[in-house]
């Protein structure tokens, strides 16, 4: 008993003698490191976005038949960049390294990723900047962690925080970006990586502010959706019903991507030849169906504002699925989340045209949530991302639709590394 009292006295004396060592708050010095990682991610994302906008403005002047040689040339040049500067890999590599290599992402190929993705996206590829940004900012976080001699979960957490900062900057959803950076690793491992949630959230908030200051993009929904009326109990049932259509299109998309990948893998060829062929195919689709060009950030707004026939919407749906498939399987750099939302919106408009008088905003958001959850296996972050991007603030219908797409997804995911098996190609 006397020993315990003496020990308590010594501890109390040490606290009194060293008051600066006593921190009455939750946060520690690591908080400022997470903020710094987010700020750096915001600067990278903001700079990337400004350059991308300038390139989009310049290359969008090429219309009509010129689109085909433009995109074939862009694919060739982007392929040569990757051939000379190194292959930065794709989302499979990111997930694989986070899960099996302690979160170490190599920044040495970031110049290749930045240059090739800017060229691919700006020329009209059907893939967005989210994947390149996630890789660049994630590897930057990993580089900072290694410079500070972090190991284990601390290194992994800082890498995930970097990933979240890049994703958040583009989508303007700090919580959605944080959760996505965990969910994309595999839904069963969100709890495993829970330690990284707060670092990711702090970095996301920091990145969001910096990105807004750099780009001057307003805070608010990205797309002007029809106003959703007061939710009814039946809406949850209808959300799942509409989600079945979105999930079916998700299966079709996954099947098309796999067939396209097999097609490109039939013949071994240099990356620049493969990407030139991909550009030729995507450019041809864009010539006949201009709305299928680009990653659909602006095209979705056009889709919502104008009226189209069912025949046109079905043709556009097929064209966009093939455009995304050829883009991502031929080696073009970019992500497919925004293009998937576009495909989901087309599906919703087709349903609304076939069965008029339904709740259009509910149809749209249900199909968009279902297809993204089906393909990317990110049902939780999909809810928050869609709510932020569309201004559809009734979470529960989106939740039912997102879970429907998730649980009815194919057992084998599109991103192979989500299976939990170490990929030998990245050894």
TrEMBL record:
Listed CDD domains: Voltage_gated_ClC (cd00400)
InterPro entries found in the cross-reference section: Cl-channel_core (IPR014743), ClC (IPR001807), ClC-type_chloride_channel (IPR050368)
Gene3D superfamilies: Clc chloride channel
Keyword match Transmembrane: yes
Membrane-spanning segments: 30-50, 62-82, 193-215, 236-257, 269-289, 310-330, 336-355, 362-386, 392-409
Record's subcellular location: Membrane
Keywords from the named record: Membrane, Transmembrane, Transmembrane helix
Main location: membrane
Pfam families reported in the protein's UniProt record: Voltage_CLC
Membrane topology: Multi-pass membrane protein
GO molecular function, one term: chloride transmembrane transporter activity
One GO cellular component term noted in the UniProt record for this chain: membrane
The keyword ATP-binding belongs to this UniProt entry's keyword annotation: no
Protein name: Chloride channel protein
């Amino acid at each position: 008993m006397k020993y315990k009292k003496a020990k308590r006295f010594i501890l109390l004396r040490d606290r009194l003698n060293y008051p600066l060592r006593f921190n009455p708050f939750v946060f520690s010095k690591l908080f400022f490191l997470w903020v710094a990682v987010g700020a750096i991610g915001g600067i990278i994302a903001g700079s990337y976005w400004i350059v991308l906008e300038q390139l989009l403005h310049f290359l969008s002047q090429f219309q009509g038949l010129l689109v085909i040689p433009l995109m074939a040339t862009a694919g060739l040049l982007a392929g040569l960049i990757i051939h000379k500067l190194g292959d930065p890999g794709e989302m499979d590599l990111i997930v694989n390294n986070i899960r099996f290599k302690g979160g170490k992402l190599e920044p040495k190929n970031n110049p290749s990723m930045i240059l090739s993705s800017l060229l691919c996206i700006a020329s009209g590829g059907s893939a967005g900047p989210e994947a390149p940004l996630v890789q660049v900012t994630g590897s930057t976080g990993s580089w900072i962690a290694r410079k500070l001699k972090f190991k284990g979960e601390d290194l992994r957490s800082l890498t995930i925080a970097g990933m979240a900062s890049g994703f958040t900057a583009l989508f303007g959803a700090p919580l959605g970006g944080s959760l996505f950076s965990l969910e994309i690793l595999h839904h069963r491992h969100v709890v495993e990586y829970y330690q990284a949630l707060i670092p990711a959230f702090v970095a996301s908030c920091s990145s969001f502010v910096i990105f807004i200051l750099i780009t001057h993009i307003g805070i608010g929904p990205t797309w002007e959706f029809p106003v959703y009326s007061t939710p009814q109990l039946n809406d949850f049932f209808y959300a799942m019903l509409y989600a079945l259509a979105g999930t079916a299109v998700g299966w079709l998309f996954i099947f098309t991507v796999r067939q396209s990948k097999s097609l490109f893998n039939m013949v071994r060829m240099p990356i620049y030849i493969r990407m030139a062929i991909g550009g030729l195919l995507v450019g041809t689709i864009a010539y006949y169906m201009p709305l299928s060009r680009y990653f659909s950030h602006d095209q979705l707004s056009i889709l919502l504002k104008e009226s189209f026939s069912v025949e046109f919407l079905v043709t556009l749906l097929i064209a966009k699925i093939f455009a995304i498939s050829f883009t991502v399987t031929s080696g073009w750099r970019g992500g497919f989340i925004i293009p998937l939302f576009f495909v989901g919106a087309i599906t919703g408009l087709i349903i609304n045209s076939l069965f008029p008088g339904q709740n259009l905003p509910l149809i749209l958001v249900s199909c968009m949530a279902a297809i993204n959850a089906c393909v990317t296996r990110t049902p939780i972050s999909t809810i928050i991302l869609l709510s932020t991007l569309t201004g559809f603030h009734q979470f529960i219908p989106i939740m039912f639709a997102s879970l429907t797409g998730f649980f009815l997804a194919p057992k084998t995911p599109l991103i192979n590394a989500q299976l939990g098996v170490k990929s030998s190609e990245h050894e």
